Amino acid sequence: MSFFKKIFSKEKKETLDKGLEKSKENFFGKLSKAVAGKSKVDDDVLDELEEILVASDVGVKTTVKIIDRIEARVARDKYLGTSELDQILREEIAGLLSETGSGEAAEFVVPDKKPYVIMVVGVNGVGKTTTIGKLAHQFKQKGKKVVLGAADTFRAAAIDQLQIWADRVDVPIVKQSMGSDPASVAFDTIQSAVKQDADIVIIDTAGRLHNKVNLMNELTKVKRVMKKVVDNVPDEVLLVLDGSTGQNAFEQAKQFTAATEVTSLAVTKLDGTAKGGVVIGISDQFQIPVKYIGVGEGMEDLQVFNKLEFVDSFFKKKV
């Protein structure tokens, strides 16, 4: 189908296919059992499919939408065989995702205005620092000058980890000691970036959900202080979620979207987990574009999220 045109490089697509392998095997293993001995998509098959989608961490609300779309198609086409179910699911999920967020591929588009500021939020352990490091690497590969800001000052380890990535990618970092005011670090980072004529600033922030009110106050202060140096920043607030936690990722998304204006999402650690369906549910439910997904350890394995390529890999069977 032209609907599933390939726009990824062969190497990136192979990495995506491999990264979603466990999710795919888990899903199709259950689906095969559900349709065994049945030739027609009927109410029993749809009930089984609903359970499988929920168990695959797609989420209840998104699952209901998918089932409704398939029921409408069954009613329209009168007879649909179970052999066609894979293709129907692929088309309906792709159609659902294409109605949300931005275009097919949703990487950050950096304008001429400098600096372009990305504020990164997320709880400890989700791969936040790694995501920042990989983003910095990818921007640098495109010839952009990047500055990192270590404004997650609650843990000394967070500052040390960001320093390691700054050294590895060879980009400057602005930091203070543990316990420093995060807003002060953000202010210094923006000032430093302006002096260096940097293209992009990536600021690491709150790594805890200690209290929603405190979190909201902290992130609001960071934003307010940055605006004293450059108007209308941050340009993006990127929330990093650990895809392997399934429904817990939904809960974190709810907490952070309530605490601050999240503009984009990165879903990490999809390789090695059977919970890849969480990307479908999060993309649909929060109406916030999933911009990046983590499907491996390599620098290039933080991939731009392409809805059609994701669905294609999710439903791609082994030859």
Automatic annotation (TrEMBL):
It is found in: Cell membrane; Cytoplasm. It is a peripheral membrane protein. GO terms for biological process: SRP-dependent cotranslational protein targeting to membrane. SUPFAM superfamilies: Domain of the SRP/SRP receptor G-proteins, P-loop containing nucleoside triphosphate hydrolases. GO terms for molecular function: GTP binding; GTPase activity; signal recognition particle binding. Part of the signal recognition particle protein translocation system, which is composed of SRP and FtsY. Belongs to the GTP-binding SRP family. FtsY subfamily. NCBIfam families: ftsY. PANTHER family: SIGNAL RECOGNITION PARTICLE RECEPTOR SUBUNIT ALPHA (PTHR43134:SF1). This is Signal recognition particle receptor FtsY.
